[in-house]
Write a structure and sequence with these properties.
The chain is of the alpha/beta class and about 240 residues long. The protein has nine helices and eight strands. It is about 40% helix and about 15% strand. The longest helix has 20 residues, at about 175-195. The two termini are about 25 Å apart. Its cofactor is pyridoxal 5'-phosphate.
Length: about 240
């Protein structure tokens, strides 16, 4: 199948999941996770009208995204997100190329991002990453510490929180995976009620190629899809 066909298949899956959840497909943003994908493939996806792109690694951000041709993105919404674990010493390198960092999970990273914003007299949008599965292999703040962490952002006004993000449980058990996504939704709702999130910080970035339907059923507003669009990742 071609890239265009893969994208049509994902769009159809999103629409079917929204129908099952009694949701409007327009509520769902599709982010293409472009880890290890060459510039030519990313450019082809953008040329097909898919302008929300996410990278996992700082080196790939700095290597690839200066090469994206601006003429292709001038007529569409285009956002470059960072969706992987971000080391504080990589903040300066990626800062010019990303509009949103989805993986903010600790005070040191938040403070470094804020300092970089101050240096450039600008702002950045962020998601707070929460480890709802509590798997040691996954990044993200512990759900029990989320509210305390959110309180620190009153002193970091250059960071604009869009919502919460998580990587789902690595399991085939639908209800176990959905429990984690449901927890993220409930954390968002409680944080909004307590005034710990800005009123418009309602987004939930959750769900990937294998479980996007479950995430949509539990309220996802942004799903991150890589292999179902691009196929198996080529080696670095």
């Amino acid at each position: 199948m071609t890239l265009a066909n893969h994208l049509k298949t994902i769009t159809a899956r999103i629409e079917a999941a929204c129908q099952a959840a009694q949701r409007d497909p327009k509520e769902i943003k599709l982010l293409l996770a472009t880890k290890t994908q060459p510039v030519e493939t990313i450019q082809a996806a953008i040329d097909l009208g898919y302008g929300l792109i996410g990278e996992n690694r700082a080196q790939e951000v700095t290597d690839k995204f200066p090469l994206i041709h601006p003429a292709s993105i001038a007529i569409m919404p285009y956002e470059q997100h960072f969706i992987g674990h971000l080391q504080t010493n990589k903040v300066k390198a990626i800062f010019p190329y990303v509009q949103c960092i989805q993986s903010v999970d600790r005070p040191s990273l938040a403070e470094k991002l804020h300092d970089e914003c101050i240096k450039h007299a600008t702002t950045r949008e962020i998601f707070i990453q929460v480890n709802v599965s509590k798997e040691e292999s996954k990044q993200g703040i512990d759900p029990h510490h989320l509210f305390d962490f959110l309180e620190t952002f009153t002193n970091l006004p250059s960071l604009k929180i869009r919502g919460l993000m998580t990587i789902g449980l690595n399991a085939d058990d639908e209800m176990a995976v959905r429990d984690g996504y449901r927890l993220l939704r409930s954390l968002r709702d409680e944080a909004l009620l307590k005034g710990l999130l800005p009123p418009l910080a309602t987004e939930l970035s959750m769900g990937m190629s294998h479980d996007l339907e479950w995430a949509i059923l539990e309220g996802a507003t942004l799903i991150r899809v890589g292999s179902a669009v691009f196929g198996a990742r080529p080696p670095l």
